[in-house]
UniProtKB/TrEMBL annotation, chains A, B:
GO MF assignments: copper ion binding; L-ascorbate oxidase activity
Cellular component GO terms, alphabetical: extracellular region; plasmodesma
Purpose of the protein: May be involved in a redox system involving ascorbic acid.
Swiss-Prot/TrEMBL catalytic activity: 4 L-ascorbate + O2 = 4 monodehydro-L-ascorbate radical + 2 H2O
Highest taxon above the source species: Eukaryota
Lineage: Eukaryota, Viridiplantae, Streptophyta, Embryophyta, Tracheophyta
Boundaries of every Plastocyanin-like domain copy: 37-149, 164-328, 420-552
EC supergroup of this enzyme: oxidoreductase
Co-factor(s): Cu cation
Keyword annotations from UniProtKB, A to Z: Copper, Disulfide bond, Glycoprotein, Metal-binding, Oxidoreductase, Repeat, Secreted
Gene Ontology biological process: negative regulation of defense response to virus; response to hydrogen peroxide; response to virus
Known EC number: 1.10.3.3
Major localization listed first in the record, in broad terms: secreted
The protein's name: L-ascorbate oxidase
Length: 579, 579
């Protein structure tokens, strides 16, 4: 009798299990994509150049999925001599660290002619993007949008009637290969400010949409609308609410976005909901994404500018522009007033005020109240053998040819510097002045984090090589979100800990450090894998501005062979074979 | 007693064996080189661009060895995202087919940060060179000279008092990456004629060494002599004989070389001695090398021009120039007459006459009198989906991601097209007119040659896409020399066989086909491996102008893992491992 009851229970539980699988599979999908990456002629700003495109498109195709879906992307490298990888920026890759798309870290670069399958779950709704993460292939144009809608039956915590996708980038007329040589040369040749700001891969260099409002000599654009560099018009109905999904994959530029005469209500950052707040314009740094709502409450017989401007560096680049077109007004009717003016580039007060408005919605996970380890990371600009570099605690990151994920998983001690990089910097370092000794050294060591511990990272900015210069750096963490516990001026001290926001800190994957300031982050090292943490300014990363975190690597199972088929891991696996 | 005698004999033989090893090792050396390949700023013609350099040099270091030496070259890839290989042009790689340096054919490309050891014997004295053989890295400047002297105690069959090394190339201001995109685009954008001809990596674009003799508006060069683009002066003593070692690694240009008022006695081609013949100027096609002697029998109070000019294509490129400087005349004294004039670019009669003068010295190996197989290869220009291609017997070569040497050795039938490409073309094909159907298809099939058989190849030229156009193509064979049995006009017929030169045909690795003509080659398939045979014009190879030969692949032993660590061979070897 006991047996019969147990058997019934098991049968019932099994039926429930099957039902749950059916329900889950009816909601969550596996989305199959076949992509080919290749160089192609393109005219992002009216001047023809070469971009890295996907399936003949620039920017690459927009991915649209639902939370819980699995993406299965077969990526074929159609370049002639270059490897390629794609990073899915903001997707935490829980359980799939080999799909993070970082060459030298999570996988071997995909060789020309070969195909790699990125298969991973998009576990959370939000506004994301993807981009190349090898050399400076992001600068070459390898990027696109990744939008994850809420799971079927679920709801966003705000209402909107329509949405627009706005992917921001910056564009140089000098190719990314030559930029790499410039940045690596002795003396370093800086790439300078971008020629053009792009909105969804479109900008204007030799003409201006707003020439009539400008004192510059730029001529008015004469566009038919089907040019590769013609702006994508945002067509709206009056008295509706729209969601702007904004992501910045700029190589360098920090940006400010505004829509003439319209307020923006910011509701999401990096895939996490925010306490909504209203602004006239918003900052967005490379690596960040936002959603902002706006209501079409203005005179519908006019059109309005959406503009982006450079922040934090003296701008030499005209604003990026497109038009908000009220129905039934003609899209070709230009707005009757100049594009909205962003705060002055060096008005850091405005930027800090914006950053401080960003607070998590109550449903957001809360940070642990204490941490197990604090890592202070000093950001300095230095020289190595006369070449300009960026260093973190006096180590300028050089990535090894064998990806860390494989070499750490297999315990290959000759694959990278086994010395752990420092958790701190000299107590008496004066962050307000150029370093006494401006030379540094390169390294490939890893910060090994104890699995499931809570880590605090204090990003400490400093004076660069030149006196009175300190730059903005947006730092991006792979594999995790972190809580931004606070920003401060000057050097971080123990007293600052008491001011940490543990109540509603924003939960994000990218955080900026302001000139001469610090930013405090907290995260839980709960995602087995090896993860890049770096300045999202691509030339800065090229110059060594990053670190590598690793946690729970022994828990990583079944790394696909394709991710290991290079360098010492390739050798290791092949050496076991008798030919 | 029988035992004792045998024992003595064995001891004696053993002593002789040891002695021979000692003698051999005292003569033949292993030469160790460590090379790093990287992009660098350079000014090959007075305009700064980016070149692919080796150890900070452009062209790469000159290798100097003796016949019988082993070269051990540790090549490290310091590029950021590109693979690299180096082909040792003219070295047959007997027993070391994996060291031939052809990506997709003999080895996996060396990934960024990784090192590959090229170890091979240079078994024969001669004038050779090396260059990149991946994408268009040769066009990017990855090349240098490889000079093999006769073994110690041996003598050349001619006398000379000194020698000069002359490596010829052509240079474009548009980078090779962009050239690749241009060539692959729809419609194809042709790269056009080079901006500058380089002698040992040096040419002049914005000025002319011989401006005073020119009707063009070029200004006279004002050089200190230490500029990267200043010519290397050839300093000579009067009444001596000098050897010019000339090799052409041009991407495109066929060249003609002359020294004002000096005869050239041609004595070597592609590492084989010739019946010496005297000329006023000599043709040299991409992939060829020559030695020519000249005697300094002119007025020593003057200097003389060495000039190179374009052949076979309407030249838009000024001559490449340097100066023969007689001691004790000042090197800065310009020659008192204009640079020597080459035959008109389309004077093919002159080129054919030169080619027909090239005959083997009697000591050269003789061709077998008959062959086992004849392969006719029709060279046509075609379209695939609107893109311009070159095809051989209607197949435009596309190289597979997994190198043939490994995939054939391990019998991987899914690594490339298993269908063998055709040995012939349609009997009624009219080589004098554009094809009726200009479309073709791509393929990666292999010509499998029975080991140790004699193969005849008839390279058949034809009309290109445009009526009345047929181009010069210098075809280069890897892993072998071939005998050039003859050249002919129009379509090859059975009657032409009787005119084959079996007595003293030149023995070479590169042979040209003239417009609307054919060239007959014979070689013995006696070198186990997989070997490229292709037009040495790099953009033509990029557009599919090549075939692949394989012979005795099962005899190939111990391919280094590094040559196999990619694609399906990498996968095969890794799949055998349990992780």
């Amino acid at each position: 009798m006991g047996f019969l009851i147990d058997s019934c229970l098991i049968r019932a539980l099994f039926s429930l299990y099957i039902l749950s699988i059916i329900l889950a599979s009816s909601a969550a999908k596996t989305r199959h994509l076949k992509w080919e990456v290749e160089y192609m002629h393109w005219s992002p700003d009216g001047l023809e150049g070469v971009v890295m495109g996907i399936n003949g498109q620039f920017p690459g195709p927009t991915i649209r999925a639902r939370a819980g879906d699995t993406l299965h992307i077969e990526l074929t490298n159609k370049l002639h001599t270059e490897g390629v990888v794609i990073h899915w920026h903001g997707i935490r890759q829980i359980g799939t660290p080999w799909a993070d798309g970082t060459a030298s870290i999570s996988q071997c670069a995909i060789n020309p002619g070969e195909t790699f399958v990125y298969r991973f779950k998009v576990d959370r709704a939000g506004t994301y993007f993807y981009h190349g993460h090898y050399g400076m292939q992001r600068s070459a144009g390898l990027y696109g949008s990744l939008i994850v809608d809420v799971a079927e039956g679920e709801k966003e915590p705000f209402h909107y009637d329509g949405e627009f996708n706005i992917l921001l980038s910056d564009w140089w007329h000098k190719g990314s290969h030559e930029q790499e040589v410039d940045l690596s040369s002795n003396p370093m040749r800086w790439i300078g400010e971008p020629q053009t700001l792009l909105i969804n891969g479109r900008g204007q260099f030799n003409c201006s949409l707003a020439a009539r409002f400008s004192s510059s000599s730029a001529r008015e654009c004469r566009l038919r609308g089907n040019e590769q560099y013609a702006p994508q018009i945002l067509r709206v109905q009056p008295n509706k609410t729209y969601r702007l999904r904004i992501a910045s994959t700029t190589a360098l530029a920090s940006l400010n976005l505004a829509i003439g005469k319209h307020k923006l209500v910011v509701v999401e950052a990096d895939g996490n909901y925010l306490q909504p707040f209203s602004v006239d314009n918003m900052d967005i740094y490379s690596g960040e994404s936002y959603s902002a709502l706006f209501t079409t409450d203005q005179d519908p017989s006019n059109n309005y500018w959406l503009s982006i401007n450079v922040r934090g560096r003296e701008p030499k680049t005209p604003p990026g522009l497109t038009i908000l077109n009220y129905s039934p007004t003609s899209a070709s009717k230009l707005p009757n007033s100049p594009p909205p003016v962003s705060p002055r580039w060096d008005n850091y007060g405005s930027s800090k005020a914006f950053s401080n408005k960003i607070l998590a919605l109550t449903s957001t996970p809360k940070p642990p109240t204490t941490s197990h380890r604090r890592i202070l990371l000093l950001n300095t600009q230095n020289f190595i053998d006369g070449r300009t570099k960026w260093a973190i605690n006096n180590v300028s990151l050089v990535l090894p040819p064998t990806p860390y994920l494989g070499s750490m998983r297999f315990g290959l001690s000759n694959a990278f510097d086994q010395k752990r990089p420092p958790d701190n910097f000299k107590h008496d370092y004066d962050v307000m002045r150029p370093a006494a000794n401006q030379n540094t050294t390169s390294g490939s060591g890893v910060y090994v984090l104890k699995f499931n511990t809570t880590i605090d990272v204090i990003l400490q900015n400093a004076n660069a090589l030149k006196a009175n210069v300190s730059e903005i750096h947006p730092w991006h963490l792979h594999g995790h979100d972190f809580w931004i516990l606070g920003y401060g001026e000057g050097k971080f001290t123990e007293n600052d800990v008491s001011k940490f926001n543990l109540k509603n800190p924003p939960y994000r994957n990218t955080a900026v450090i302001f000139p001469f300031g610090w930013t405090a982050l907290r995260f839980v090292a709960d995602n087995p894998g090896v993860w890049a943490f770096h300045c999202h300014i691509e030339p800065h990363l090229h110059m060594g501005m990053g670190v590598v975190f690793a946690e729970g690597v022994r828990r990583v199972k079944r790394i696909p062979n394709e991710a290991l088929a290079c360098g010492l891991t390739g050798k290791l696996l092949m050496n076991n074979v008798h030919k």
